[in-house]
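Forwarding the complex inputs:
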Amino acid sequence: MNRIDNTAIESESDLEWVEVCPASEIDVEDVRRFDHGSSTFAIYRTVGGYYASDGWCTHEEALLSDGLVLDDVIECPLHNGRFHIPTGEALSPPVCINLKTYPIRIDNGTLKLGLSQHRS
Amino acid sequence: MSVAANPTGLSTAEARSDSLNIKWFTCDIPRATLKELMRRKDGPALWNFALWLVFLLGSGYLAFRCYGTWWALPAFLLYGTIYSSSDARWHECQHGTAFKTRWINELFYEVSSFMTIREASLWRWSHSRHHTHTIIVDYDPEIQVTRPADLLKIVCDFLYLYSGPIEIKRIALHAFGILTPAEQDYIPLVARRRTIRSSQIYLLIVLTVIASSVALKSFLPILFVWTPRFYGGWLHQLCGLTQHAGLAENVYDHRKSTRTVYMNPVYRFLYMNMNYHIEHHMFPTVPYFSLPELHESIKSQMPQPYAGIIDVYKEIVPGLIRQSHDRNYYVVREVPA
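Prediction (whole assembly, two chains):
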C-alpha cells in the first residue's frame, strides 16, 4: 500500500476511507472532481503524488476540477486565484482563504479519500 | 447577426437572486484539449512584450526628436497608441496568463497597471467581479456602456477623457485612505492596505514627473507618462468597445453579452488577442496566445464572429444611438441550438 498523507487533521481511526477511482485514471498534473454525499472534492495528481481538497474555490463558486494544475499549484478556472495543492494555502489574489485539504492514499491501485466520520 | 428590441434576459432583481447559484453556459470541449490550451509558456509573451517595448522606446525616441516641430504630432500619436496598449498588457497579466513565470507576470502587471492608470490592487478585485458577473447590472463594476447609453461619455473615452479623470481621482482618494462603499464591497480588508500603498506610489511618481516638467520648463516629461493614455487612447477604446457594447445584460451566456471579432495582426498584437473575447470570458485560464486555437476548437458552438472592426461598428453605432433613448433595446445574437 502506498500512503500519501497531505494533512494531519484527523487520527487514522477517525477516518472513513472512501473509494475515489483507479489512481491511473488521473494524469500527472491534472485534477478530477469527486462527489461524495453532498460534498464536492478535487483530487489532484502532481509530480509529487496525489492530494485532495475541497472541490470549490474559497473565493467564489468555481469548481477547481475545471482549473489548471501547475506543478504543485491549482489555479481556479474563474479568476485564476492560486492554491498550494499539498497544504491548501491561498497563494495569490483574488483568493484569500485557504482550501481545506484531506488525506488520500492508494490501496491496491485505487485512490481512497480520508474523510472524518464526525464531519458536519 | 440581428438587431432587435426583444428583452428576454433576466431582470437585475432576477439576476441578483440567481447570483449565488450562477451557471454560465460553456461550450463543450474535451478536457485534454482544454488542458493543452491552458498550458502556460514564457516564450510568446517575452517576444510580445520585448517587441512592444522596442516599439514603445523607438516611437518615444522619435517623438522626443520631433518635439518642437509639426512632426511631433504624428510621432506622439504613434507613441501614445503604443503606450495605451499597456491596457491590454495589464489585462493579460491581471489574469496571470501572460507568462508562466510568476514574478515576470507580476512585474509587468505592476508596470502596465501604472502606465494605463489602473491601480493594480483595486483592479484585480474589480476585474474578478467583472468575470463573475459579466454584464450583470449592479453586480459588474466594469460595464462599459450602461443604459441608457451616454454617447458623449463613449465618444470622450476615445481620448480617455471620461474614465481617465475618474481613475486619477480614485487613485488620489485611495492615496489618502478613502475607498467608496462599492470598492469596500469588492476589495477584501486584507487587500485595502495594498491598494492605498500603491496609490501613494503612483501619486508620488506622477508628482515627480510634473515637478520635473516645471523644473525643466518643458512639457516633455508629462508627455511621456500618463498623458499618452489620453492622447493615444483611441485604438484601445475602438477595440475595447467591441467587447460588450449594445449586447444583452443579465444573461448567463457570454455568447449573448460578448463579441468575438476578427482583427488584423497589428491590432491583435497591440490588443493581445482580446478580440476573441467570448472565448476569453468562457475560459479565462487560457492564455492570450492560445485564444485563436481555442476559437477554432469551439466556433461551431458560437455565434458567427464579426468579420472586422467596421462590421462591428455597423452594429454598435446604431445600437448605442438607440440605447441612448431606449434602455430596453439590445442587440440579439443568434447562437447555435
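The CA atoms of residues 18 and 113 of chain A lie 5 Å apart.
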